[in-house]
Fold each of these.
Amino acid sequence: MHNRRNVVEIVSTHIVREGGGFRVRRPYRMGRVMSPFLLIDEMGPVDYGPGEALGAPWHPHRGFETVTYLLDGRMRHEDSAGNSGELNPGDVQWMTAGRGIIHCEEPHEDFLKTGGRTHGFQIWVNLPAAHKMMDPRYQEVPSSASPTVEKNGVWARVIAGECMGVTSSIDTVIPITLIHVKMESGSRLIQSFEPQLNGMIYMFGGEVNISDELRVNSQSRIPGLGTRQVIRDGELALLSEGNEIVIECNSSSEFLILAGPELNEPIARHGPFVMNTREEIIQAFTDYQNGTFAN
Ligand code: FE
């Protein structure tokens, strides 16, 4: 039995400055509405001249995971645990901050010199209360080792979860789907979902139509949405429950498919810390000031 997912709400995006001042596009509404994701930031696209590229200097995180996926540009990272590395187009860094990590995310020095285009994503994945203070860990998947699949005009990189029979190697704390999809005009993707997970689509190029063959040219059953089942560039679409979605494309399009469980826990957030209570946030600041944060 296929229970089709539909769009139940469209969240539009706006452009803000983050970190050292770099441009990000993010949904207007965040937090519980897109559980378990706390933040979906599209970095750029922005074209830097020589010496202009920006990053995020040293800062801490506690209580969640940061996923960085680069489409264009070249970044360098370093952290308090002694890890360092670089990110190039197609590379994924899945960092579980857990009880604490202090890191910097900057343009690579060669890229800073030459300038060029930076585009990518940073997504914050919340951790359930029971795992917020877990040991920090890194998973890095270079573009060359990242599972991709292409069928009938649909290309996908499977960062987490499964798409068109291809599965990611990333080990996630809670079940997460994160897929980068490009569709050619006239193509169609049937994506399955675990029915208990929240599902959403973030569109960053072109537009798609969500098909529900059970809804025969009729009014949408969803109050406030009219008959609209179109997702356009710069929109986050929140999806109904169901075990699959049918995505159709009349022009080329590019988007992320995201899914994860409803955590149903209080969110206490201050800057780079995301915990469940105010006391835990104060503790994070105290630990950071005492220098016991990332030991
Ligand atoms: Fe960070």
Amino acid sequence: MLTITRRSVIGGAGALAAVTMFDRAWAQSSSGPFQLEPLEYDYDELEPDIDALTMKIHYERHHQSYVDGLNKAVADYPDIAKMPLQDILAKLGEMPESIRPVLRNFGGGHANHTMFWEIMSPESGKPQGELKAAIEGMGGFDKFKEEFNNAGTKRFGSGWVFVTVDKSGKLGIESCPNQDTPLMDGKRVLMGNDVWEHAYYLKYQNQRGDYLRAWWNTVDWDWVGKRYAAAKAGTLKI
Ligand code: MN3
């Protein structure tokens, strides 16, 4: 089966990008409706900001376990298995009670980590164009990063810090506990950082603030800009 990777889409077939790149999390796999997408970089390529062992464990064990748990939960619910993940998460309250906590934790975890790997790259760059203007509108890039880092630092225990984006392009910063995501409120996520200890503890130990500051070096602004455009066009999924 042909796999269109993120970078091959960007590099070789720009016109295809709009219709394919946000569908990649939904490609069918033989083991279940949800699958772990291939990473677009090697485990050591985000060093020194994220170490290779953390990347390997985080991707191969943590994220894989969310995918496996999610597939297991929907195995007896073919109608739910066919739903796009963002719809499952936005309609958690309508899901069968017996699998609702699993959908929340593993479905949220799958959405969050799929987004997380996508928005990082060894080549970071800077916000450009309309995204840059939206960040300027929040008081500038430094203030934006500081507000995001503060929200991530203040999240007690495990969770995430996100930048949300609405269809008008307006940005917001919020943090969520565990694997919760603004997708559960029907919102769209532009980008986010994982502040579970498994994301940083090997290298940063208890210094979550240091991790949050260093993480910005890994953000793929070209890709985040594409997510921003997709959000405004109504095509951004997770
Ligand atoms: Mn994680």
Amino acid sequence: MSEREHGVSATDGVTTARPGAGPPAAAGTTRDWSAETLRDALDRTSRWLLGYRERVGSLPVLPRTAPGEIRAALPARAPRDPEPFERVLEDFERLIVPGLTHWNHPGFLAYFASATRGPSVAAELMIAAVGVNAMLWRTSPAATELELVVVDWLREALGLPEGLRGVILDTASTSSFTALLAARERAGERVRETGLAGGPPLAVYVSDQAHSSLEKAAIAGGLGRAAVRRIPTDRGFRMDVDALARAIADDRSRGVRPALIGATAGTTSTASVDPVAPIARVAEDTGAWLHVDAAYAGSAALLPELRDRFEGWERADSIVVNPHKWLGTSLDCSVLFFRDPAPFREALALTPAYLASEDGEVVNLMDFGLPLGRRFRALKLWVLFRCVGVDGLAASLREDIELARRFANRIERHPRFRLLAPPSFSTVCFRAEPGAAPATDEVADALNRRVLERVNRRGRVFLSHTELDGRYVLRLSIGSVHTRPTHVEEALAELDAAVEAELGSPGGPGE
Ligand code: PLP
């Protein structure tokens, strides 16, 4: 690029603007923005951000955009010349925001929430400001040590035993995959050196309700889908422990080694909790690695009154809890706890010459996962704990659970809806019933699809669906700090209106 394009001479300093090259807001006059330009951009951004958070509840939760529409509105090539930030922010508001699904909308009641509390917004700014990479202790001692400290704060707050350590990764999928790699190393024979070929076949056991990330981990970890045993669940969607024991015994009799049992505390569909204590006994008896996927519900262990639901998880080899699901940190923040760091190191530590350090007895976080570069995620948890406090976090979880309980009660009493699973934590599965005339499952499924479509199209709330016993089921989950009782009332009103439009008011025809 020419001197003209950059606005700096080849010899002057990298941050010195060429006289007469234009106002600082035009950017590009230096390698980086001047302090003045950055201040202006931050002022604009924070004004925008505050306004957005205030008005997000009045926007449709789901965007009304057709596939490809946003892409078509954007230039095919990056600009060659710098543009003022003001214009970028305008385009963000004009082109991008209308195409967003608003996860911070108070009516976001789909999937598991991931809403950002104020302290996490501030923490993200701090993370960007320092931009450190916590791959090695020396590449940012404070980031490494803060990560160890906040993971331990979380462990203690969740009532997990001392001695359990952990790291912060991006997502539960990565955390579970990492656990599988450690389990694979322990169960296999020199997998690190020779791979899986030639070693004993390994198997993974999860319930038929487990999240797909466990299966994906088996695929990515070279075990293959065929190595995943989907263990049936009981009427409460909890893993059948006898069936688990039988599956392992069967495998062992054929020379297949049980590498990992994945128990779930808070399944994705119904938030059911597998019987972790008896599963732990099976794991101990068979030598299988026990991984507990508590990505969503694990946060609820902050509440002493709910701790017994997690009984046995303290015996796990590894546990994943996602603060970005229910504690209000921004995506991404997934904590992987483990009892013994050795299998992680054995599976994943690899230090090329250019990363070798002579710092002595330090923890290098790159040794515990696949990525080398690591964001300073610990700051999000630190700021959250400091600014909200454990009791504050617990109080909002209690509110969410109470809101879900009230919603479930209303559904239970509703003439047109029926609960499809016991409400669990802050998640409720239910279904509209076609009415007095007997209807096939297909007719009922189609009705529920249409009800959900009607509700979500209106944009006041966003609910999702799942499948239970092969049937299409509606699902509401509360996990956003922005959701208040009025929004749950609104969800009920929307559901009411949608089912009435489909079936007519009691006694009358539908639309
Ligand atoms: N485990 C459970 C139980 C989940 O519900 C989910 C996602 O909702 C995941 C794992 C995957 O989470 P992530 O998006 O952090 O990979």
Amino acid sequence: MRKVFMKLHEYQAKEIFRKFGIPVPNGQTVTSAQETHKAIEHLKGPPWVIKAQVHAGGRGKGGGVKIAHSPDEAEKAAENILKNPLVTPQTGPEGKKVNQVLIEEGVNIDREFYLAMVIDRSAARPVMIFSQAGGMEIEEVAARSPELVLKELVDPVVGWLPHQARNLVYRLNPLPAPESIRELIAIMGRLYKTFIQSDCSLAEINPLVITKEKKVLAVDAKINIDDSALFRQKEMQALDDPREKDPLELKADQYNLNYIRLDGNIGAMVNGAGLAMATMDVIKMAGAEPANFLDVGGGASEEMITRGFEIILEDKKVKAILVNIFGGILRCDVLARGILAAAEKKEIKVPLIVRLKGTNVEEGRKILQESNLKFLVAKDIEEAAEMVAKQVSG
Ligand code: GDP
Ligand code: MN
């Protein structure tokens, strides 16, 4: 499945920042706790900071960021982080397996800021976001104290201008020391350059800190690369870490299925991206939540239908399944056979609602009816959504 963006690990994002002149702490990654002592030999400290490398934020809150005051303590911290899946507010209760740990020179933090470059969709422009409430989730700051979230829209034709950086920095209260102000302004320019030249959809530093020694450093780093630009970001492609991907999404990739896992409990199988979006909308309008987006495509084979259905059945969150097919190039009989093949391998234990229309619909219905598959038939998409929502309510 082509995703909207590709996520990088913190250590990879910091490597890119370093290249663009944004200062980051010295560090090294390890994949086992035993490597910690050796890694630390090249790093100033104590203290050292031990950080889980996973594609999820909120690591600090989940015990994925530890400060160590001795090499032994650092090794223990790395061991603990690598041992168990990391649970943070962003991972879900099952957590995420940690394959790598970043060990860094500890930093004496005086002040923490939030700095990010993203696309403002409504303005159709890049926007620099800056806040003196660093270290916290920016959504949280925006909800509680919106006046602390400062923004500068960028005209992509002229690029980032120095006065825009001054607009942001001189609104700080209290003002940092002059040398820190100069650094902050320079870093904003470099962040814009990073964002544009690396085709980022997000480049975020949270926190960007001023140290007690008045140095400015990116203590955390998050970069997402726009998927549509990956063809010209060859070095970025090599940074992709498939271990971070959802196993069901990886499986869908193998069979060329457009599948995205979501948080709800209604499994949906649809042909055509537009119909899949519309189906998700009506599921939500009926008061339920889709467990996935799945567009099996116009010309899906029986094999692809089977694989897609298997993926839905493998998702333990799924409590009901909605099949919404408008047969065109994909014929309804092919769909029916595909579903039956999947049901033969794995028993369908959740209610199944089917709405079929279009090419060979009679034959498709007949195949399903003559099987011993239990399912309900809906006459249209609204009825289908209501039926499926009813199955999971209460
Ligand atoms: P996140 O929780 O996943 O966003 O991980 P961060 O890299 O942002 O780390 C969480 C918090 O740990 C930061 O907001 C800092 O307050 C703290 N932290 C990280 N590195 C250091 C460090 O070198 N020294 C100190 N004192 N605190 C640090
Ligand atoms: Mn952070």
